[in-house]
C-alpha cells in the first residue's frame, strides 16, 4: 500500500499535494472509504466525535476534501457479513481514511475483520491515517498510548519499521521531552510529528512532508 501517516490529517498544502501524488489523480476523481473504528477503543472519543469525523466536521481534515464518493467502513461489522460482500467495497476504493482513537483496538479489528490480511493485495490503495490511524501501521506505539483495557500489549501491525509519536506540542503531555522518553523504550526508529507533518511511505521509501515540527529518534 501507499501510506500517508499524519498526526492531524491533511492540514496544509504540502500534505495535500502528497496525497494527490499518491492517488495519481485529483481528489475529486477518487473514491474514499472512511474508517472510524479506532474511536470506540479510546475513552476520550464519543459517538459525537465519530460522527464529526465521518461528516467532515472534525479538527482533522480527511472526509471533507471533496472526494468523488465517500463511504463508511466499520471494521467491527465486517466479520458478521462475509468477505464476499465487503472485500469488493475495498477493492473499488482508491483510498482508506482512517481516524484516530486507540491504535491497539484498531489493530485488533483489522486482524479480526480480515482487513489486515487483505492489505498486501492492494498495492495501489492509499492509506491515510490520522493519529492512531497512522500508529496502527507501526510495530509498537508505546505503553503511554494504550487506552483500550483489553490490549495485550502495545504492539500493532508492523507494516512499517518505525514508530510515531503524534500531536507534538498539541497537548501538555506531548512535548518533545515526553517524546524522547517514549522513544527510549521502543527499540525501533521513531518520529515525533506535529499536526502539520506527515510521513509518506511508498515501496519502503520514506519521506517526511512537513510545514511544521518533527524529530527523528534512533
Automatic annotation (TrEMBL):
Entry keyword Cell cycle: no
InterPro entries referenced in this protein's UniProt entry, alphabetically: Class_I_gatase-like (IPR029062), Peptidase_S51 (IPR005320)
Organism: Micromonospora purpureochromogenes
Keyword Hydrolase attached: yes
GO molecular function: dipeptidase activity
Gene3D superfamilies membership: 3.40.50.880
EC main group: hydrolase
Chain ranges passing through the membrane: none
One Pfam family cited in the UniProt record for this chain: Peptidase_S51
Keyword set, alphabetical order: Dipeptidase, Hydrolase, Protease, Serine protease
Cleaved signal peptide residues: none
E.C. number(s) listed in UniProt: 3.4.13.21
The protein's name: Dipeptidase E
Family indicated by similarity: Belongs to the peptidase S51 family.
